[in-house]
Automatic annotation (TrEMBL):
Residues 40-49 have a biased composition (Polar residues). Its main location: cytoplasm. Coiled coil: none annotated. This is Ig-like domain-containing protein. Transmembrane segments: none annotated. It comes from the Eukaryota. It is found in: Cytoplasm. Belongs to the protein kinase superfamily. CAMK Ser/Thr protein kinase family. The keyword Cytoplasm applies. The keyword Cytoplasm applies. Keywords: Cytoplasm, Disulfide bond, Immunoglobulin domain, Repeat. Residues 32-53, 181-209 are annotated as: Disordered.
Amino acid sequence: LAQFQNLQKKKVEQTQRKALVEELAEKQLNRMKPSKNVAPRTSYTSYGTSDDDVFYEPTQRVAPQRHPTAPTLGRPLKDTDVKEGQPIQLTCQVQGFPKAELLWFKNNIPLPLSARHKTSYDVGSGTITLRVNDSRPEDSGVYTVLAKNPQGHVQTSAHVEVKESSGIDETSYVQPDAFKYIEKQPAAGPRSTKPRRESDTSNLQQKPA
């Protein structure tokens, strides 16, 4: 009987201790005020050697805080030359937090986007791209992209030259392989130019009389 009473007392103590730990953990969490830039996560670590001797202690996990930074240039725009009608593609790389706002210019004038002008911004890699389809000579000029956020700004420029088409149709009307058959024919040997003499009858057969 005494052993049973001791066992019951032990279980009551464990229950009270577990309730006390949970109450303390709840009070601690209520006192903590999460920062705007920190995402707290709470888990519980168990202690004990058996199912009857287990209590829990709260563990606080705090995600690393990312500090705002001004945009920095990882890879600048590069000068490029294209032929009229070919697409223009300019690419650079910018890093910074928070995400930068982009502004494109041509010859220091804001670039109006149209059906021919397409821009993209991959925030993960920081890759910024401008593509101009069906290029024209008037698309030549200096292109600039400005990346800015509340911490600062950075810019990069490149010169684009669109070479005007000559207007001459250079299409070949004869297929390049049209003469392959003739080129593969073996060259004929030189013909003999020696005149045949009438007295040369070595190749003639005489008929019987």
